[in-house]
TrEMBL record:
It comes from Halanaerobacter jeridensis. Keywords: Ribonucleoprotein, Ribosomal protein, RNA-binding, rRNA-binding. PANTHER family: 30S RIBOSOMAL PROTEIN S18 (PTHR13479), SMALL RIBOSOMAL SUBUNIT PROTEIN BS18M (PTHR13479:SF40). The lineage of its organism: Bacteria, Bacillati, Bacillota, Clostridia, Halanaerobiales. This is Small ribosomal subunit protein bS18. One of its GO terms (biological process) is translation. Binds as a heterodimer with protein bS6 to the central domain of the 16S rRNA, where it helps stabilize the platform of the 30S subunit.
Length: 70
């Protein structure tokens, strides 16, 4: 029996646009060292993974999220 693929949380909740100001959602997709989780681990679809990456990078540039965690 093959393992089932993960479903995209954003598609399940019918989210159209990921907002960079919602830090509590974005932090779920960042590791403890500050790296963005890849799509194969997070289970996001390609469309939402691109939006998520963009939102995380935008939140970092506005200093809502850290670039690196020591």
């Amino acid at each position: 029996m093959a393992p089932r693929g993960k479903s995209c949380d954003f598609c399940a909740n019918s989210v159209n646009k990921i907002d960079y100001k919602k830090i509590n959602i974005l932090q779920k997709y960042i590791t403890d060292r500050g790296k963005i989780l890849p799509r194969r681990i997070s289970g996001n679809c390609a469309r939402h993974q691109r939006q998520l990456t963009k939102a995380i990078k935008q939140a970092r540039s506005v200093a809502l999220l850290p670039y690196k965690i020591d």
